[in-house]
Amino acid sequence: MTSAFVTVFLVFGLGFCAQRFRLLGEQTLMQLSAMVVNILLPCYLFFTTATGSTTESISVAPLLIAMGVVVPLCSYLLASLALKPSRVTEEQRSAFRFSILVANTAFLGIPICEILFGPLGAVYAVLYDFGATLITLTLGVWELSGGRFSNWRPLLFNPLIWSVVAGMLWAFGGWPVPEWLVAPFETLGDATLPLALIVGGALVGDIRSQALAWRQQLAGLTLIRLVATPLIVSMILLGIGQPALSTSVIIIQAAMPVGLTPSIMAKAYGADAQFAASATLWSTLASMLTLPVVAFLLIAKCGR
Predict the structure, then answer these.
(1) What is the dihedral of CA 302, 257, 84, 138, to 10 degrees?
(2) Cα(178)–Cα(159) distance, rounded to whole angstroms?
(3) Is 22 helix (H, G, I), strand (E, B) or coil?
């Protein structure tokens, strides 16, 4: 497990450090991000799902999607309770709650779940991410915009979800993946997750933060996002005895730092984008300490 996180954070850190030195232009970074999300990850997930789907993986899909909605809702409620103790100003409230609501369940969560739990862990992580995206585009946009909702196109045309759906249909149709496609898909898969980590690290490294004046607000946000939320989720899921793999993926995803989109969306809707960007940067750096602890305790408990 230790070697897995060393690998993750070294590759993620490579992208982070590269972008701190501005080795990638903003347009290049956005193009790489689009390629990972729209081409590489969908191909990897289709092949993984088509060759590894089981009846169990289908049966837990509703749970994973539902928890992708419920966990952010819990973190949002915790954020609302923490506004006064964290001394969050009126201008920061929307960005504070939205940043806690939106976790990095894609660029960081999917690779970590794959490394810790295997290819099926990545599939489960995508199903969770679908639920999280649903709550982001509804409650999240409502929070930022004061009662207006975004359109549903980003959710309905999410290539990650449709690649998993297509893979499941392929698997349960009983069709084998042609032999001449197996090696290319495997090679693509070997390159996809490292590239996703590098791009994710570069996106975080692109953020510039002036956070000294927000120490208390960022500390409260980070504690909720990285400690309180996974702790509460762990107590509930382990207490009711959910299947080990799905439980493990949900808890790891619940422990992810603030996602990459809050600063972009906050700027688009007139919220405090600089605070949201700082939340992404500092919670990601803190997660390098908290995520291995969560995984260690989880694996010790679940035996994975």
Answers:
(1) -100
(2) 22
(3) coil
The CATH T-level fold of domain 2-20+27-298 is Na+/H+ antiporter like fold (1.20.1530)
In degrees and rounded to multiples of 5, residue 107 shows phi and psi of: -65, -30
103 bridge partner residues:
258
The pTM assigned to this predicted structure is: 0.84
Domain boundaries, the chain: 2-20+27-298
Instruction: Print pLDDT tens along the chain (304 aa).
Output: 667 778 888 888 898 998 888 888 888 888 888 888 888 888 888 888 888 766 667 788 899 999 999 999 999 999 999 999 989 888 889 999 999 999 999 889 988 998 888 888 988 998 999 889 888 878 888 888 765 555 566 656 778 888 888 888 888 888 888 888 888 888 888 888 888 889 888 888 887 766 556 788 999 999 999 999 999 999 888 777 666 889 999 999 999 999 888 887 887 778 888 888 889 989 999 999 999 999 888 766 665 5
Please say whether the beta carbons of 273 and 266 come within 8 A: yes
State the first-to-last Cα distance of the chain, in angstroms, to the nearest integer.
10
Tokens, residue 100: 């806690």
Report in angstroms the alpha-carbon separations of 200 from 151, 156, 298, 299. Answer: 25, 23, 24, 25
Place of tokens 């504070």: 96
150's enclosing H/E stretch is none
